[in-house]
Amino acid sequence: MRPSDRTPEQLRAVTLETGVNRYAEGSCLVSFGHTKVLVTASVEENVPGWMRGKGAGWVTAEYGMLPRATHTRGRREAAAGKQTGRTQEIQRLIGRSLRAVVDLKALGERQVLIDCDVIQADGGTRTASITGAWVAMATALNYLRAEGVMKVDPILDQVAAVSCGIFADTPVLDLDYEEDSNAEADGNFVLTGSGTIVEIQATGEKRGFSRPEFDRLFQLAELGCNDLFALQRAAVAAAAAR
C-alpha cells in the first residue's frame, strides 16, 4: 500500500475550480491532493515583437512558488533577482504543452499569458499547472468568443499532465512528495485528449527502469489523463453555464 493508502492506479483527489479570479479572462484553482496551484489566463491584443505581422498569436507561461508553498520558507525569486533553472524549465514546459493544442493562426495576433502560482506543493506542481492551465485558457478563449472578440475556437484538443513513477518496486500513478522523494524512477507525462504525446520526462533516480516498467508507467499515465480530461471538460462546461 502506498503512503497515501491509494492503489497504484489511483489519482489523488483532483479538483478544478474556475472563476476564482474576478479580473482574469480565465482562471482555475487546481488541486492534486495537497498540491494547489492558482492559474490565470490573460489575453492581450498584441504579440511578441518577433511575431508581429505574421498573422498568428502566441501562448506563453510563467510559473512560481509562494514562499511557504513548501515545508520551509523559500526566498522569493524576485528578491534574488533571477529565476532558477527549475522555474525556467517548468514554465517553458507549460507553454510548449499549451501551444501543442492551439491553432496559433486562428488565435490571431494576440497572446494568452498563463500565470501559475503554486500555493502549496506536495509533488506534481508542473503536472497540476499544465492541467489547470488548459482549463484557464479554455475559459478565457470561450469568454472572448462569447463577447464577440473571436469567432473561431483556436483550441484543437485538450492537454493534461500527470506524474508516474516506481515506488517500492511498484509502478504508481500521481506521486505525492513522499513518494517522489523516495522513488526509484519517476516521470512526467503530457498527453492530449486524442491520445498523442506532447512530452515525456522520465528519469531513473535510484536505478534504471526496464521497458516493461516504462510501458506500465505510460499505461498509468493514459488512465490518469483520461480522468483528468473528463474533469477538465466538466470544469469548462460549468464555467460556461455560469
Automatic annotation (TrEMBL):
Domain named Exoribonuclease phosphorolytic: residues: 10-140, 157-221
Catalytic reactions of this protein: tRNA(n+1) + phosphate = tRNA(n) + a ribonucleoside 5'-diphosphate
Gene Ontology biological process terms, A to Z: rRNA 3'-end processing; rRNA catabolic process; tRNA processing
Annotated keywords: Nucleotidyltransferase, RNA-binding, rRNA processing, Transferase, tRNA processing, tRNA-binding
EC top class named in words: transferase
EC numbers, comma separated: 2.7.7.56
Keyword tRNA processing on entry: yes
Binding site for phosphate: R86, G124, T125, R126
Gene3D superfamilies referenced in this protein's UniProt entry, alphabetically: GHMP Kinase, N-terminal domain
Function: Phosphorolytic 3'-5' exoribonuclease that plays an important role in tRNA 3'-end maturation. Removes nucleotide residues following the 3'-CCA terminus of tRNAs; can also add nucleotides to the ends of RNA molecules by using nucleoside diphosphates as substrates, but this may not be physiologically important. Probably plays a role in initiation of 16S rRNA degradation (leading to ribosome degradation) during starvation.
PANTHER family: EXOSOME COMPLEX COMPONENT, EXOSOME COMPLEX COMPONENT RRP41
Assembly with partners or alone: Homohexameric ring arranged as a trimer of dimers.
Stated family: Belongs to the RNase PH family.
UniProt protein name: Ribonuclease PH
Origin species: Brevundimonas subvibrioides (strain ATCC 15264 / DSM 4735 / LMG 14903 / NBRC 16000 / CB 81) (Caulobacter subvibrioides)
